[in-house]
User: Which sequence fits this backbone?
């Protein structure tokens, strides 16, 4: 079983960004309404949305009519941006060079001189491909896959929960 897992917040906030795309950058949507729409913990969702705000993906407006809105156009925000904001930008795989330890310690200089660890190289290549793939999927792309009925249902729900910000879907 694969032990590397992204935090739940990646899925949660990606769905929320799709909703925010629907509402535009001028109308903040309360995190409590987003949490209720998806059956999520408001506290944990807000924590993840704050990370997106700290990384410039959304803006946060305090107060009764406040909430979150996209900080830039949806086509400029990618899944890679979401992953980086929530999970960091560091490498997934960290090579500890065990090929130069234990039995092979005395030959470590020779082993290192023969080239980079092939396992580390393969993992880096796979991670680069994964990140490249995520960077090609924008929030606009994801929003295009949401059916009209779901968009309308979300719009009506948010408007009921946040009447100060009524809009046209």
Assistant:
């Amino acid at each position: 079983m694969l032990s590397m897992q992204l935090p739940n917040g990646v899925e949660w906030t990606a769905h929320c960004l799709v909703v925010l795309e629907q509402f535009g950058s001028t109308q903040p949507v309360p995190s409590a309404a987003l949490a209720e729409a998806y059956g999520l913990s408001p506290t944990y969702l807000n924590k993840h949305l704050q990370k997106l705000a700290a990384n410039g993906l959304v803006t946060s407006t305090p107060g009764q009519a406040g909430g979150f809105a996209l900080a830039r156009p949806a086509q400029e925000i990618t899944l890679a941006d979401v992953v980086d904001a929530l999970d960091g930008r560091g490498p997934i795989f960290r090579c500890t060079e065990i090929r130069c330890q234990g039995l092979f310690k005395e030959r470590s200089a020779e082993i290192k001189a023969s080239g980079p660890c092939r396992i580390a190289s393969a993992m880096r290549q796979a991670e680069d491909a994964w990140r490249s793939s995520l960077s090609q999927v924008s929030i606009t792309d994801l929003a295009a896959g949401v059916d009209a009925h779901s968009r309308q249902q979300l719009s009506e729900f948010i408007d009921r929960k946040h009447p100060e910000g009524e809009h046209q879907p």
In short: The chain has one domain: 8-165. DSSP finds eight helices and two strands in the chain. The domain at 8-165 is CATH 1.10.10.10 (Arc Repressor Mutant, subunit A). The mean pLDDT is 90.
